[in-house]
Amino acid sequence: MAMHLDILSPQQTELVRRPLEQAYTLPVDAYLSDTVYDQEKKRFLGDVWHPVARVEQVPNAGDYLSLDLFGQPLLVVRGRDGQVRVMSRVCLHRAAPLAEGCGNSYKFTCPYHAWTYDLTGQLVRAPLMEGVNNFAERALRLPQAAVEIWQGFVMANFAPQPSPFADQVATFSQFFAPHNLADMEIVKTLEYRNGWNWKVLVENFMEAYHHIAIHSKTFEPDFHARDSRIPDNDGPWSILHMPAAKPGPEDVSAALDGWQRDDLFANVIFPMFLVAVKHPSMVWYQVLPQAADQLHLKIHICLPSTFRALDEFPQMVEAAAQSVDAVHQEDIEANDLVWAGLQAPLTTQGRLSTLERSIWQFNQWWLDVMAA
Question: Which of 38, 112, 102 minimizes the C-alpha distance to 76?
């Protein structure tokens, strides 16, 4: 299928489409081009599901949080009816943002002209609009996304009638069912802002090949790159399975087989839903692209809700945060190297290793969506 982007040639696309053992990376312009990024925004704000929050972030009626996804300001809101909604947070009058950050409120009032919306996004007050022909407050509502709650994640899709998310990841869900991801809660969030294309971070996350150099003293001793494996996928997802070099201590309280308990999994639900699972924790990398060369990343460290009652809970959270940050600092170094190299005039598509099957799987999906 031909790309609807003249900047990516059929020859470049053919190299990506080859079987893994013969395949190449995406072309350089897939990362650098503003045109490609603009096309991604259009495609990915169509029929593609995105994780925008965890349900525990908006537990009560009126709880809300704001975020920007591919340049679209969004509100995640818990309504009086208990339903979680995802909607635009741009006023329907003169396009001012309605809210920032997070909090609790039963209405959202535009700071520009005081137009006011309720928790469903319905306009309930528009001052001094008398005399405007054919204007009715009840006829205006903030644009809404379709929402599914999956494993505690609030998933949003902006297509009018999207394909159900759970159906697309049924095999993935079955694989991780023993880990009970829905019972996890965010216990700490780390934030980073970096000057790369979002795909640079995603690709780094989804392969263990770089353990031998970048993580030679952190991950490689415990999770050897050569032992990593990536199963075939039957949907928009990829699993990087990293077997533990040595078995961990027995945990009779966990209904997990030894490999499920000890091994590390770096999972991507395309395009950028990144979740690392290592019993008993989950780490959600919330990727929020800002531009072709700008990225906002929130790393949410999650633990089972029952852990909050443990005396050592604060120390566990701090230790996890230090470990995650230390590894990510190494990844920042790696991504900085890649981003600098992508700017070089002589840089072209590179060959993939068979240890990078996840990247190959992602690239096939990316081409399909971009050519749709």
Answer: 102
Q: How far is CA 292 from the centre of its chain?
A: 16
Please identify every stretch of the chain with a pLDDT value under 50, giving residue numbers as ranges.
1-3
CATH at residue 365: 3.90.380.10
Query: Distance (Å, rounded) from C-alpha 276 to C-alpha 211?
Result: 15
Pairwise CA distance, residues 221 & 326, whole Å: 15
- How many CA atoms are closer than 13 Å to the CA of 8, on its beta-carbon side? 30
The answer to whether position 285 is within a domain reads yes
Whether omega before 289 lies within 30 degrees of 0, making that bond cis, reads no
Q: Which pLDDT does position 359 carry in this prediction?
A: 98
Task: Say whether both 274 and 194 belong to one domain.
Answer: yes
Indicate whether 292 and 254 sit together in one domain: yes
Residues 134 and 207 in one domain: no
pLDDT of residue 254: 62
The parent domain of residue 121 ranges over 50-157
Average pLDDT, the chain: 95
What is the rounded end-to-end Cα distance, in angstroms, of the chain?
8
CB neighbours (10 Å) of residue 326?
12
Tokens of 335: 């991504």
Please report where in the chains the tokens 């990536």 appear, as a residue. 230
Q: Are 119 and 80 in contact (CB under 8 A)?
A: yes
Q: For the segment 73-127, what is each residue's pLDDT rounded down to a tens digit? A: 999 999 999 999 999 999 999 999 999 999 999 999 999 999 999 999 999 999 9
Whether residue 202 is contained in a domain is answered as yes
Q: What is the pLDDT of residue 371?
A: 87
Domain count across the chain: 2
The model carries a pTM of 0.95
Give the torsion sign (CA, 104, 106, 111, 112): positive
